[in-house]
Write a structure and sequence with these properties.
heterotrimer, A mainly alpha (about 270), B alpha+beta (about 350), C mainly alpha (about 280), B: about 350 residues, alpha+beta, six-stranded mixed β-sheet, five-stranded antiparallel β-sheet, 8 helices, elongated, C: about 280 residues, mainly alpha, MetI-like fold, two-stranded antiparallel ribbon, 2 strands, globular
Chain lengths: ~270, ~350, ~280
């Protein structure tokens, strides 16, 4: 059927479009010599090894990982009580705090970045490594806030009521029922924030760009002075991390539901 | 001390009144069914007992103590929810032990209690099963066991059997009744299924539109319904209106019927159960309590036979056993006898 | 069973996130707004003042040109992205769940890619030595490889690449909730799959499409590196200019004024898109 063929062609074209730069970068990363050529000339994994062996790349990797772990934890710590409060209590004014939590992600990132730059300089903390952790923690609070809101909505009211009839107070219910049930949502919210923090450039650059090099900052700085294949290997590494993390979320959670689809095969 | 008492309870949700002013006593150790169509306020009443809803006005007393404002988790009532509300992240044993564990019960105590409760609901050796791998009936039993773990003062069940298929539901009804008799615990079940209420209850509370219509044992509810709603909701019935013509006599369309407990005069409505109506082949005689009708349709169900009759313009349904079946076919005339003790005079709904 | 918060500990739960967001989001925002009225000092950074000269600079033709280009580019990117993503998302939501998940993982991975990496990837793909032209040469279509970037086409391609997964994910909820019987009904009435898509699906989601266009427009407006990495200086956008002024020209007050302006544009557009979304939910 011609329609089916056109459909397939369209999907294949989009797949090609989305993967083409990644394929070329992956190919370049296997070059034997320090040249930007594709298809690769020779085969070598040296440029992957270099991420871990060359001091400046390794340092950038550790910086990025540290920032991402700290920031994603912080974003969950901020989002959790907020999402819990919104779920547990009837308080229309709390919506304002919710909007504040969603705003950083909707506004152009340059604005948030510039806000942090003016804040940290005014506060006299400009360039301190921990400022980027807080900046990213706030910037990405939207992600766990969204997943946790979904998670709380998915908790059946009757489970909470049942626990109450058995003698559990609010705190006990939170610890023994809610927390175990929304753990997958906590983890996926944190994972989203982790991957995005790893990749984030502009907020990190404006907060600590001159004192701490994260991998995206390091790559951008290197781009200005020419090319090294290590950029390509780092890119491949990042794509791999993202695929693994999102793949794990999909494996152990319900990715379509997290992204807003309703389940048609809901069993109650 | 007199069990559970509702003292002038009213529950409003905004402008909507879910439960109109209700005063009611539920005696200690009885099995009580709150029965009514959906939206009649029976679940709201149950949730107020559990403390899951606050009454708008009025008090709830248990053994003389006011419990109206005591939070749910301090009431120590066992409750089974309509969807059972088993914790999906806990095993069968952990579900049952939950109320003990959050009170700091030791592992050994919990283990003993789980074993005892699983034996009680006839599910031995199931403690380690995840709840997702249970059948509907097994989930039911686990929910019951969990609600009984604390030996509660009150056992509350909200439509507990509605998810089960008809056959399993019937056997669970009997089991639940036997369990209650064994434990002697005051039990309140919300249901919309009148057969379920008839099977289990010592006392049935019939409700509709936020009002209690009648509180009585099942047989009395069936034989002596207080008003047209109860008569119609519990089983099927024929409602016949008429006017008191003399002591014990009611003039209805097509003749005169007899009944006890009649008012001195005025309009009345009678309820006559289909199985109490006697049919005989028309023989031309017409005595008191007997009317003449035409058979419009016969439905033979094997064990019983339903006759749809037109009696002086009114639709009447009668049920006979095969041995009592009159020798008539659709279109024939029949004598329709309404025995005096089968004619129940209804009050205003 | 929502209740009104009463105890101190109830308020403590929201106090922490509210405090964090106030200190680290609202206050920085306020400082930025204040800074947009500050005076720049040559040789130093800036000093507190209350002047409108940073905003007055908007009135120059240079700035008007940049603004016009930024808005035009973002609009074009948004239109192209939605044109590609809408049929794509429709097909995606009709696939088996397992296939959907694979695509979603891939789309999320691309979406999470840093602009730095996207810029690097496309500049490699469009380069003379490793680029797509080498493929065309080996196929005999071109004589010798050439560089395709920097160019306007390269900026467009890179930005559509960045916005496409975002667009799909914005459209995904609405399209996956679309009642399949709507299309089936059209099919039983004899319209072909393409016709029923155009006549039934597109009109049913008209408001979603408009609000998505605006969301993607705002997203593209925020793109801060691709015009710099894949384009010539004439292709720079407002976001690039803000970064440039703040970091390299050390003109914080002017950068802040431009950022405030960008916020106003974005917020009003987001508000419009929310309004549109509401209408569809209500209808």
């Amino acid at each position: 059927m011609i329609n089916r063929f056109v459909l397939r062609l369209f999907l294949a074209a989009m797949a090609l479009f989305l993967s083409a730069p990644l394929v070329v970068v992956a190919g370049v990363s296997f070059n034997e010599k320090k040249s930007l050529s594709f298809p690769p000339e020779g085969f070598s994994l040296d440029w992957y090894a270099q991420i871990f062996t060359e001091d400046s790349w390794r340092q950038a990797l550790f910086n990025s990982l540290g920032v991402a772990i700290g920031a994603s934890s912080l974003s969950v710590i901020i989002a959790f009580p907020l999402a819990w409060f919104l779920w547990r209590f009837h308080a229309p004014w709390a919506r304002i705090v919710q909007v504040l939590g969603l705003a950083p992600f909707i506004l152009p990132p340059v604005i948030t970045a510039l806000g942090f730059l003016s804040f940290w300089t005014t506060a006299g903390a400009y360039g301190q490594p921990w400022t980027v952790v807080i900046s990213h923690g706030i910037f990405f609070v939207t992600l766990p806030l969204v997943t946790l809101t979904l998670g709380f909505e998915a908790v059946d009211d009757s489970l909470v009521e049942a626990a109450a009839t058995m003698g559990a107070d609010d705190r006990t219910i939170l610890r023994t029922i809610i927390l175990p049930l929304i753990l997958p949502y906590i983890i996926s919210g944190m994972a989203f924030a982790f991957v995005l923090s790893l990749n984030e450039y502009i907020v990190a650059y404006m907060a600590v760009g001159f004192t701490v090099e994260t991998l995206p900052i390091k790559i951008f700085n290197s781009l200005r002075y020419g090319y090294t294949p290590t950029m390509a290997s780092v890119t491949v590494l990042f794509v791999a991390v993202a695929i693994v993390v999102f793949g794990l979320i999909a494996r152990f959670g319900d990715l379509p539901r997290l992204l807003g689809a309703w389940r048609h095969d809901e069993d109650s | 001390m007199s069990g559970l008492v509702f003292d002038s309870i009213v529950k409003k949700f905004g402008d909507f009144t879910a439960v109109h002013e209700t005063s009611l006593t539920i005696p200690q150790g009885k099995f009580v069914c709150l029965l009514g169509p959906s939206g009649c306020g029976k679940t709201t009443l149950l949730r107020m007992i559990a403390g899951l809803e606050d009454p708008t006005t009025g008090r709830i007393l248990l053994e003389g103590n006011d419990v109206t404002r005591i939070p749910t988790h301090q009431r120590d009532f066992g409750m089974v929810f309509q969807n059972l509300a088993l914790f999906p992240h806990l095993s069968v044993g952990e579900n049952i032990a939950y109320p003990l564990r959050i009170r700091g019960g030791s592992k050994a105590d919990c283990f003993k209690a789980v074993k005892r409760l699983l034996d009680l609901v006839q599910l031995p050796d199931m403690a380690d099963r995840p709840v997702a791998r249970l059948s509907g009936g097994q989930k039911q039993r686990v929910a019951i066991a969990r609600a009984l773990a604390l030996e509660p003062k009150l056992f509350l069940l909200d439509e507990p059997l509605s998810a089960l298929d008809a056959k399993l539901r019937e056997s669970m009804q009997i089991e639940l009744k036997q369990l209650q008799q064994k434990l002697g615990i005051t039990t309140i079940v919300v249901t919309h299924d009148q057969r379920e209420a008839m099977t289990m209850a010592d006392l049935v509370v019939v409700m509709s539109q936020g009002k209690v219509h009648q509180v009585a044992p099942p047989v009395e509810i069936y034989r002596k319904p207080k008003d047209a709603f109860v008569a119609d909701f519990i089983g099927s019935t024929n409602l016949i209106s008429g006017r008191v013509s003399a002591a014990g006599k009611i003039a209805v369309a097509g003749g005169t019927l007899l009944a006890d407990d009649l008012p001195k005069s005025g309009d009345v409505t009678l309820s006559v159960r289909p199985e109490n109506i006697r049919l005989t082949k028309e023989n031309g005689e017409n005595s008191l309590g007997t009317l003449t009708g035409d058979v419009s349709y016969i439905r033979d169900l094997g064990a019983s036979i339903e006759f749809y009759l037109n009696v002086a313009g009114q639709q009447i349904t009668a049920i006979t056993t095969p041995s009592d079946r009159p020798d008539v076919v659709a279109g024939d005339s029949v004598s329709v006898a309404f025995p005096k003790d089968a004619c129940v005079v209804l009050g205003d709904a | 069973m929502k209740i009104k918060p009463g105890k101190f500990s109830d308020y403590a739960a929201i106090g922490f996130p509210a405090g964090m967001l106030t200190v680290f989001f609202v206050i920085p925002f306020g400082i930025m707004i204040a800074m947009s009225f500050f005076q720049r000092v040559q040789g130093a950074f800036y000093e507190p003042a209350f002047v409108f000269e940073n905003y007055a600079r908007f009135l120059s033709t240079f700035f008007a040109g940049i603004l016009g280009f930024s808005v035009g580019l973002a609009a074009l990117v948004a239109v192209v992205s939605v044109l590609l993503a809408f049929p794509f998302t429709y097909i995606l939501t009709r696939m088996a769940r397992q296939t959907q998940v694979v695509w979603l993982v891939f789309l999320l991975s691309v979406l999470s890619l840093s602009e730095v990496l996207i810029g690097f990837g496309w500049s490699t793909l469009l380069s003379r030595t490793a680029g797509i032209t080498n493929l065309l040469v080996s196929l005999g279509i071109m004589d010798k490889p050439m560089s395709l970037s920097p160019s306007f086409g390269a900026v467009m391609t890179g930005m559509v690449y960045q916005t496409f997964p975002y667009t799909v994910l914005v459209l995904y909820p609405a399209l996956s909730r679309l009642d399949p019987s709507l299309v089936e009904a059209a099919r039983t009435l004899g319209s072909g799959p393409a016709r029923s898509f155009l006549n039934v699906v597109v009109p049913a989601l008209r408001n979603s499409i408009v609000s998505t266009l605006i969301m993607v427009f705002v997203f593209a407006l925020g793109c801060y590196l691709l015009p710099q990495l894949l384009g010539k200086p004439s292709h720079w956008t407002l976001s690039v200019l803000i970064t440039d002024q703040a970091i390299y020209q050390s003109n914080m007050p002017f950068a802040a004024a431009m950022a405030v302006f960008l916020v106003l544009v974005s917020l009003s557009l987001v508000a419009i898109s929310l309004l549109y979304g509401k209408k569809e939910n209500a209808g």
